[in-house]
Amino acid sequence: xARRSIRGKVLMxxxxxDTIEExxxxxxxxxxxxxxxxxxxxASRGVEQARWKREQKTRWDERKLLVYTEYAAxxxxxxxxxxxxxxxxxxxxxxxxxxxxxxxxxxxxxEINRSxxxxxxxxxxxxxxxxAARKWHEISWTFHLWAIGSVEATREEADRLYDSAQxxxxxxxxxxxxxxxxxxxxxxxxx
Length: 191
Fold this sequence. Notes:
The chain contains 4 helices and no strands. By secondary structure, the chain is mainly α. The protein has a domain of 125 residues: Four Helix Bundle (Hemerythrin (Met), subunit A). Helix 1 packs antiparallel against helix 2 and helix 1 packs parallel to helix 3. The longest helix is centred in the N-terminal third of the chain and has 87 residues. The mean pLDDT is 87.
């Protein structure tokens, strides 16, 4: 009888061990599923965050490109108009000279346009592009002052300043390309 009770106890112990083993296997399975779910969630979240950041950067880059392009066009127009007025005074070669009387209202509008574009650029641009824009702005403003007659200029000064304007424009474009991560263009920009 003692053997039976020992044997019975051993069998009960073995059955309990089987139950514990099954329970542990169930817990391990649940933990594995939970770890897998958490891993999948974290991986999906990481992928979504990376995609969102990429899309945001693309949106900002598109906006920056538009702002930089509009600013460049406005500065070029202000310089062209100033040089056209100076051309009518014999101070600058110009394809289309325009008298001060006819040109000043247009130049005033060009200056407003350029100034508005500069504000947008300063809000969205980094330090390198803002510095390049300000340099180009200073040159444009000097042409403006000469065109409206606030400051006298010579033909030589106008020619030198135009060369400086070309260099400032190229520096601006280079800063814009750097900020946007654009590699060197195949074709250099034209006058």
